[in-house]
């Protein structure tokens, strides 16, 4: 009998987080770049057809799949603290530079050996990387809005390092949480990012930026979603924007089934929504998150009551849930296993 992830792939709701690749003991599955343009009728987009013929039935992949695990109804229920922050060293960062600042400080203090992150080249093409120093973190500054199987890099990281941090969007943070709970305790910190949706990099770079915004990709300095629009800033200081509704339809199909906006399964969640320009909103969710943020707090500026605050965050949580929950629950009815949106704490 194929593992549960086979159905996730068949129904085209695989988030391509890479968790299954990270943990399969026989290396039976590889989430390829081609998975970004997945055809649910073509299992060849996964090496060995997701390992159906060579799978040994351990079902580890099913225990770490965020789609199989499902979603939490109240994603702020485990929030212990909410505040604004910005790194004292945030040059080149998207907003307050908190995510990068946390990693840099922990590397300098010798508290982590490795961090799994994502960088980009001059063409804005993403690349998953293992970071091993504060200097490496500089390469990952700024939000990319395109997806790659970040969690898959843990397979190599587990072989080489003992104290690993993971930074990623909700599906990746969820997967890292499941891996830490079920497979490997070498993950010491999970930093989750707020995310409404992400895009295949070919769609972003070949369609959205050049055709909708009329900007050459090589001229782009920064991209961001804020104030109801998608903004692109160029190297010559031009600013271009379109309403988010004009680009949201181009998001990856799995994103239209996601019901987690704030990375509920992370130790620390970080985003720009809810805080003023130039700051990040920070959500402390676990004992681990509190411990590690305390370690780096000396390198941060703190805003105790940021505005517009949680009201705006809650509005976007509700918006994402309203748009996506029906799609996800419809697919759940097709699964042979039980999952869904559960009313329980993480």
Automatic annotation (TrEMBL):
Keyword set includes Glycoprotein: no
InterPro entries: 4Fe4S_Fe-S-bd, 4Fe4S_Fe_S_CS, Co_F420_Hydgase/DH_bsu_N, FPO_su_F, FRHB/FDHB/HCAR-like, FrhB_FdhB_C
Assigned keywords, A-Z: Iron, Iron-sulfur, Metal-binding, Oxidoreductase
SUPFAM superfamilies associated with the record: 4Fe-4S ferredoxins
Entry's Gene Ontology molecular function annotations: iron-sulfur cluster binding; metal ion binding; oxidoreductase activity, acting on CH or CH2 groups, with an iron-sulfur protein as acceptor
Residue ranges occupied by any 4Fe-4S ferredoxin-type domain in the UniProt entry: 5-34
Coiled coil: none
Pfam families: Fer4_8, FrhB_FdhB_C, FrhB_FdhB_N
Cofactor: FAD
Name recorded for this polypeptide: Coenzyme F420 hydrogenase subunit beta
Organism: Methanosarcina lacustris Z-7289
